[in-house]
Amino acid sequence: MRGFYLILALLGLFIPYSAFLPWLLNNGLDISLLLDTAVSNQVSQFAWLDVLVSAVVIIGFILVDGHRKQIKHRYLAVFGTVTVGVSFGLPLYLYLREKAEDEI
Fold first, then answer.
1. I want to staple 77 with a disulfide (CB 3.0 to 4.6 A). Which of 2, 32, 40, 93 is the partner?
2. CA 37 – CA 39 distance, rounded (Å)
3. CA distance 28 to 34
4. Cα 66 to chain center, whole Å?
5. Gap between the Cα atoms of 72 and 70, Å rounded
6. pTM, whole model, 2 decimals?
7. Whole-number Å distance between alpha carbons of 72 and 95
8. Does 104 have pLDDT greater than 80?
């Protein structure tokens, strides 16, 4: 499973940024435009709120489970969730967790 989680983490990094980077190159780091675009309709708002709640749950899980199981570098998964998203942070944490279990 470790390899599977690592592949998913990489996909979770590259797929979202493949959509974001062209927008960033066209618009620059215009935070106001980014937020306006991200919540421009109710479907977008639904998706962002869903991701926000999921990110909070995942960060809580990483912090509690990671402390309990003493997962090294668990804060990388928190950082990944905040900077990239749920699609990167969760599989990265699961990879780190599997790696720690394999080392026991």
1. 93
2. 6
3. 10
4. 16
5. 6
6. 0.89
7. 11
8. no
